[in-house]
Every structure is written in structure tokens, then in C-alpha cells.
């Protein structure tokens, strides 16, 4: 698959605001809605200066003129008033009332939601039960009751509609606020001494704003409809003033003799509401950051690969894994942003290669590219080749690639708690890993799972197999992760920081286990870490990664003894317990003595 054309031509660094606008315009329905609204809006703004007849002047002689009658493009109503003039003036009133009600409901409802969600506890309970009571009434009935109490009239209809819509805002905003109020950045703001109001205004509100805008854009259409409903029943606009609902109500009596009197305002209501709604949906899609980043668009099973990537020969003969000139990155609204560039690696059977670099240097993206596991969208492999033996993974069919996952190349991830299913016993999960690639009976599978758990050093494996992930310690969970990786006898294991979440002693034992397994099964191990101590412990060779590129590679001992790149030296300097004692401290001193020379390297 290749890059969509509009993304290819787009220069990077385009402003976020502009790209939101583009996203909105890419949605045809939303764009059409916007165009319709702009046209209607302009007509309404121009109403006072347009050469229209007075909407309220009756002319009994001209009653019920049909559409396209002389002097009356949309005909006249039962009192001889010009329909076009009444339509435009009426739409003005309806829209103004609808938007005013939306604004009032948004301000009050959001304030309630913010306070309830932020305060929590009893305040939340009290406020939300009040909101629940409002919601328990059918809302048009509630609006009717409010207008009945206040008396008919446009302003009262406006209040009634605003009140019945407050719950929508309050509930939406409260839900989001509730999640935000317990997040670390809010705690941090509180700890920094900000008052509650300041925290709400500067930390919470900006994050809630999109929700408010979305709710507004999706309810504004309804509010116009509700205004029309109340006016239709005679509770809103009072004669002779026109609004869309009252025009509809007055036209009802002539529905059969002069249908245009009710159809014209009806069409206008339809047009207004539907364009508001499609525009609202478009705005919602653009504002939702999850939709924008493509996280909610279901990622494909395999990373998208450029159709026009170059051809690269595998590196050293007999490599288990050979990555050539890999360029993987992410498609965003601003274009393709590479995360790794021209990465080449070779991994021999039975060898352990350490891939080291600081956070964000592109280690995981490299590792995930191997089996096409970078989620697309937005992930995209733009160039390079990845050979398993002498077969190019990127040229494999999807089915073959998916079949190779776990059976030829297996992954071990950093935190097994997130990759293990919380609701299944671990034994069953190992069985599932076996069942994904091997056909065997249930009993046999169970035996094999227990054997694997024993192999990775889970004591009492047979009993432990019935335990759930949360009943295991972090080290044991990682052992289960390793057992699952071993389940189908892969040739290559890619371990992405498998020990980072563990304490030093457990880490040492897991490393020992990995090394033993690797020797015993002649596994090729690609070991990702940011800790040179770990590399020294287990890897034969090491590749140092920085900003998406490999800056240095060589046998571990050699790189440790004489790092060529300043960045490598700095990474090594981060490891105090390499067993180098004085020499090590000397090296740090040396580094600090020559900051200038280092900067030049
Ligand atoms: N889904 C994504 N969308 C956009 N950019 C991404 C995405 N995932 C990763 N990146 C970018 O790719 C780059 C490399 O990330 P990667 O996860 O490979 O780093 P890493 O070296 O594994 O770091 P760590 O040690 O923290 O795991 C980062 O700059 C990151 O911002
Ligand atoms: Ni990573």
C-alpha cells in the first residue's frame, strides 16, 4: 500500500489548526453542511437590508397565493403575508433562540459537570442526582411544564429548552472530568500550590473543552427543533411574530388547500437541522484526538508497506535475521514522520544482539517492524528489507507473515501484565499460544504448557497453571511471557526491554534464564534495552541507536572497552555497577574532563 496522495505532497510542519480544518473539509457531508449553514447564515444576516416585504403586514386580498406568484416568490400565507420574508425573519428567530439556548445549557451544564466531577464524593452525588431527576422526565414534557409555569413566550421557551438540555452537558462533562481529576498532572498542579479554581480552569477545562464543543455541535440542531416544537404548540413565538415553529403551526390548518404554507418552513427546519447535525458529526470526528491519530480506526493486521521500496540484498550469509536500510515512521496530518532511518542489523543463529539507546530512539519501532506489528494507521514502512533467512518478510503475503509470528519470530514485551489476559489462568494462555501454531489434543497441550512453565522456572508449575496473572509476581509474569514466546520453538526471539519493570535481582535471574534458553536452543536473540549493564551481561554484540539511526555496532567487549561514539560513551557512563571498579570511575572522570572534545566527536 502506498501513501495517500494528499499526504505525500503535504510539506511537514503544517499547523495543527489548518490540518483540523482540512480534516473537516475532507468529510464531504460536513463540508456540505457547512456550506448550507453559511448560505443560510448570510441570508439571515442580510434580512434587514434585503428588499423584503414586511413579514407582519397582512393583506387579506392576497391570501394563500401559491409559490412563484407575482411579487411573492414563496407565495403568501392565510393572512396574505409574504412567505419569503416570514421565512427568513422566522428562521432568524429560531436560530437565535436555538443557539442562545445551546450556549446557556453549555455554560450551566458544563459548570455543573466540572464541579461535580472534580469535587467527587457527596457534592458529586448531590448534583448528579439532581441532574438525574431532570433527566427522568420526558424532556419535551418538562419543557412544556416549564413554559406552562412561566407563561408562553419566546424567552420562556428559550429558558425551558436550555434547562432541559443542561443534563446532556453536565453528564458528558462530568464523565470526562472524573477521569481527568484523578490524573497525575492534575495532582501535580495541586501539589504546586494552585487553588481548586485555577486547577479547574487551567488543567481540567482545556481538556474538557473539546467535549463541550462536540456536545454543543451535536445538540444545537435538536434545540432548534425543540424551539420549533414549542412554537408549533403555540407556547413560543406569539403572533404576529414569525418563527419556523409557529409558521408550521399556523400552516397546519391549510395543509391540504395550501400545502406550501407549512412545507416551506418545514423544509427550512429540515435543512437547518440536518446541516447542523452533519457538521456537528464532522466537528466531533475532527476534535476527537483518538480519531485524529488513527487509534480508533481499526489498525490493519500488518503494517502498511510502501509499494516502491528499494531492493536490498540480505547482509551476512546465514543470518537468522537481517534488516537492511529499514525506514519506518508514522503518517500524521503533516505527512510522513520517520521514527527510524536506514537501520541495518544482522543477527546470526545462536547469537544475542543488544539494541541499546535512550527512550524514543526507535528501538521498539525497529523491533515491531520485523513482523509488521507497527499499528497502521499511522505506522508505515517506507523503505528497506527484512530477511528471515533468505526470505524477505516485507514481500511475504499477509497470511504467511501472520503465520510466521510466534512460530519463527516470537516477542517478549516489557510488562507482561499488559500483554497477559487478566481473566484467564496463565496455563490456559500458554496453551493458547501453543494452539495458535500446533495441532494437538487438549491433554497433550496442557502437558506441554506445564512443561514450558517448568522450563522457565515457575515452581509447582502444575498448580500454578491455574493461577491468574494478578496472582503472580512481576518476575513470574515475565517468565510466563517467556514461556509463551518459547511455545512454538521460534528461531528468533525479540525481547523488548523484558526486564525493565523488574528489580535488579529478579532481572539477573530472568537474564540468566534467557541466556540459558538461548544457548540450549540455539536461539537468535534481539535484546532491546537502555541499560549497558544488561547488554554486558547477556549480549555477544551490541548496536547503539540514537534518534532513529544506528550509530555504532560491534562485539560487546570491544564496544565497552573502546566506544567510538560519544553517545555510546555516555550510555556506558550511566552504568555504575559494571564491575569495572576504579577503571570505570576513571572513565567517568575522563568524560567530564573533556566535555569539549566529546562534543566534537
Ligand atoms: N503511534 C505513534 N505515532 C507517532 N509516533 C510514534 C508512535 N509510536 C512511536 N512513535 C515515535 O517513534 C519514535 C520511536 O519510538 P520507540 O517506541 O521506538 O522508542 P524506544 O526507543 O523503543 O523508546 P523506549 O525506550 O521508551 O521504549 C518516538 O519518537 C515516538 O515518538
Ligand atoms: Ni520501546
Automatic annotation (TrEMBL):
Entry's localization field: Cell inner membrane; Cell membrane
GO MF term set: ABC-type nickel transporter activity; ATP binding; ATP hydrolysis activity
Spans traversing the lipid bilayer: 29-50, 93-119, 131-151
Q: What class of enzyme is it?
A: translocase
Membrane-related topology note = Peripheral membrane protein; Multi-pass membrane protein
Q: Reaction(s) catalyzed by this protein?
A: Ni(2+)(out) + ATP + H2O = Ni(2+)(in) + ADP + phosphate + H(+)
**Domain ABC transporter: residue ranges:** 323-572
Oligomer and partners: The complex is composed of two ATP-binding proteins (NikD and NikE), two transmembrane proteins (NikB and NikC) and a solute-binding protein (NikA).
Q: What is this protein called?
A: Nickel import system ATP-binding protein NikD
Protein species of origin: Pseudaminobacter salicylatoxidans
Amino acid at each position: 500500500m502506498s501513501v495517500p496522495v494528499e499526504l505525500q505532497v503535504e510539506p511537514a510542519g503544517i499547523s495543527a489548526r489548518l490540518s483540523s480544518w482540512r480534516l473537516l473539509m475532507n468529510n464531504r457531508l460536513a463540508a456540505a453542511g457547512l456550506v448550507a449553514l453559511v448560505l443560510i447564515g448570510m441570508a439571515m444576516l442580510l434580512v434587514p437590508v434585503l428588499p423584503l416585504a414586511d413579514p407582519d403586514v397582512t393583506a387579506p386580498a392576497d391570501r394563500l397565493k401559491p409559490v412563484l406568484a407575482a411579487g411573492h416568490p414563496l407565495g403568501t400565507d392565510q393572512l396574505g403575508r409574504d412567505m419569503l420574508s416570514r421565512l427568513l425573519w422566522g428562521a432568524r428567530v429560531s436560530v437565535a433562540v436555538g443557539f442562545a439556548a445551546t450556549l446557556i445549557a453549555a455554560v450551566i451544564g458544563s459548570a455543573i459537570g466540572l464541579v461535580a466531577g472534580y469535587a467527587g464524593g457527596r457534592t458529586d452525588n448531590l448534583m448528579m442526582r439532581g441532574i438525574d431527576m431532570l433527566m427522568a422526565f420526558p424532556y419535551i414534557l418538562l419543557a412544556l411544564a416549564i413554559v406552562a409555569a412561566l407563561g408562553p413566550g419566546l424567552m420562556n421557551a428559550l429558558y425551558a429548552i436550555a434547562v432541559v438540555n443542561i443534563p446532556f452537558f453536565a453528564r458528558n462533562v462530568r464523565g470526562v472530568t472524573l477521569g481527568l481529576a484523578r490524573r497525575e498532572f492534575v495532582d501535580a498542579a495541586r501539589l504546586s500550590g494552585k487553588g481548586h479554581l485555577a486547577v479547574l480552569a487551567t488543567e481540567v477545562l482545556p481538556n474538557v473543552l473539546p467535549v463541550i464543543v462536540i456536545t454543543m455541535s451535536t445538540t444545537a440542531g435538536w434545540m432548534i427543533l425543540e424551539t420549533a416544537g414549542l412554537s408549533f404548540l403555540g407556547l413560543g413565538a406569539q403572533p404576529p411574530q414569525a418563527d419556523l415553529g409557529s409558521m408550521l403551526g399556523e400552516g397546519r390548518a391549510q395543509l391540504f388547500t395550501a400545502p406550501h404554507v407549512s412545507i416551506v418552513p418545514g423544509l427550512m427546519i429540515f435543512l437547518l437541522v440536518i446541516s447542523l447535525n452533519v457538521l456537528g458529526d464532522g466537528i466531533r470526528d475532527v476534535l476527537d484526538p483518538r480519531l485524529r491519530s488513527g487509534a480508533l480506526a481499526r489498525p490493519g493486521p500488518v503494517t502498511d508497506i510502501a509499494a516502491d521500496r528499494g531492493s536490498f540484498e540480505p547482509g551476512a550469509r546465514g543470518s537468522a535475521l537481517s534488516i537492511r536500510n529499514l525506514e519506518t515512521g508514522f503518517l500524521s496530518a503533516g505527512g510522513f514522520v520517520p521514527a527510524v532511518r536506514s537501520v541495518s542489523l544482522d543477527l546470526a543463529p545462536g547469537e544475542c544482539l543488544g539494541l541499546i539507546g535512550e527512550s524514543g530512539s526507535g528501538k521498539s519501532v525497529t523491533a515491531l517492524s520485523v513482523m509488521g506489528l507497527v499499528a497502521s494507521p499511522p505506522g508505515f514502512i517506507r523503505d528497506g528489507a527484512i530477511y528471515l533467512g533468505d526470505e524477505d518478510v516485507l514481500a511475504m503475503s499477509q497470511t504467511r507473515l501472520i503465520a510466521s509470528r510466534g512460530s519463527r519470530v516470537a516477542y517478549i514485551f516489557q510488562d507482561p501484565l499488559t500483554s497477559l489476559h487478566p481473566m484467564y489462568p496463565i496455563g490456559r494462555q500458554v496453551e493458547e499460544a501453543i494452539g495458535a501454531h500446533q495441532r494437538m489434543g487438549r491433554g497433550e497441550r496442557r502437558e506441554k504448557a506445564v512443561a514450558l512453565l517448568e522450563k522457565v522456572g515457575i515452581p509447582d508449575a502444575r498448580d500454578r497453571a491455574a493461577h491468574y496473572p494478578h496472582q503472580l509476581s512481576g518476575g513470574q509474569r515475565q517468565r510466563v511471557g517467556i514461556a509463551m514466546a518459547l511455545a512454538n520453538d521460534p528461531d528468533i526471539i525479540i525481547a523488548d526491554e523484558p526486564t525493565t519493570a523488574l528489580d535488579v535481582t529478579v532481572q539477573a535471574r530472568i537474564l540468566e534464564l534467557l541466556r540459558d534458553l538461548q544457548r540450549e536452543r540455539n536461539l537468535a536473540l534481539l535484546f532491546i534495552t537502555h541499560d549497558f549493564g544488561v547488554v554486558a551481561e547477556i549480549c555477544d554484540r551490541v548496536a547503539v541507536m540514537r534518534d532513529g539511526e544506528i550509530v555504532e555496532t560491534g562485539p560487546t567487549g570491544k564496544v565497552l572497552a573502546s566506544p567510538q561514539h560519544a553517545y555510546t560513551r555516555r550510555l556506558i557512563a550511566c552504568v555504575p555497577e559494571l564491575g569495572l571498579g576504579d577503571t570505570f570511575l576513571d572513565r567517568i572522570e575522563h568524560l567530564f574532563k573533556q566535555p569539549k572534545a566529546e562534543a566534537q566527536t
